[in-house]
Amino acid sequence: MNTRRAFLQGSASLAVPHYLLANEPQTSGKSLIIVFLRGGPSTIDMFDMKPEAPLEIRGEFSPISTAVPGIQISEHLPLTSQQQDKFSIIRNLSHSDSNHGSGDHYILTGYKPSPAFQSKQSPNNHNPSLGSIIAHERKSGAVPPYICLPNMHRSAGSAYLGPMYSPFVIAADPNSPKFAVPDLAPPAVIEEKRLGRRSALRNNLSRLTDNSHVSANRKANSFREYREAAQSLMLSTKAKAAFDINREPAALREQYGRTTLGQSCLMARRLVEAGVQCVTIQHTDWDTHDENFRLLKDELLPPLDSAISTLFADLADRGMTDSTTVLVTGEFGRTPKITNSAGRGHFPAAFSALISGGGLNTGMCVGKTDKNGTTCVDGCYTPEDLSQTILTSLEINTHQELHSAEGRPFAMVNNGKKIKELF
After folding, report:
1. Strand extents, DSSP E, 357-417
2. For the chain, what is the domain count?
3. What is the distance between the alpha carbons of residues 358 and 323, in angstroms, rounded to a whole number?
């Protein structure tokens, strides 16, 4: 996790292995926003309803029509239903891991963790998150390339890529009246002018040590660029402006919803607009073992409906849809069969996610499940396929290898294939 102090200290002490610099970072205006619904949302009650199934499967909710004829979603997502033309529903996602921690890792990285996986560690990554891969592959500017809010998911780390590519974390609620990002300000004992003088002195010292070998060494140059980026973050007016959510019109803030999720989605839009390459939003708690329908209706779906519907519309209004891929997902879905406590259990065998932007096809449903939502019909897509699809939409070359500090090669995507219907 990167706070200001860790970011600066890390920039001054990390040795950047040449393996990490084997591929020149790409320049692209495309970004990713992940809205991660941690706990496993009941997508059978949201995006893949079964009104013809028995009562113990179809549940209490009814479907409603959307802006796209023939596609229906939950009656408790009325605002989202009117934005259906701006996103697609993947209804045939599937994997075999019904555990929260390892299931999270699988979705956020595209890799199943090994049996030695420690879900309680933070970060717990055996493989780098999508955000860390994007940060590794892209040139960064005045703002960090990868940000998590309102906290960091345990599987949002950089693994073998090293701390240079871990997220900058906004550990604060953007809906709070006192919301601020203190890591953007120098310590109280160091004035900005003094910080600038320190940076200039360090640059002069670096120039004194330059020679033809160092000048030809991309590792050294990248090390210097990273250090300078860390310093410039605190001095950047662009970064400070991007994090200032109070610049948004009050009416738009209300549309997103005056909730943590709503304001996190608004902040994500601000950040990608400012040049951030990936924003991961973690929202809890979707683990509805008990009182599934009450929790969805009263607590979970209303803020989600306001947040994602406005995000889709806002990106479109600003002409940012093609440059911004949005993924709304959890680690798995919920069981078709309702329990005695009016809940649903963990169910990774068949579940749904929303995806939009990045030049992907929208206004459609990809795949389908059987009449009771128990299995995919005509094939499933996996977390590996989801990773391949997202990175391809961001114009990242997924055929190249990533390397650990020791030089060990890893495939960027674990044999995933593109979700063809989206292209």
Report:
1. 365-366, 368-369, 376-377, 401-403, 409-411
2. 1
3. 5
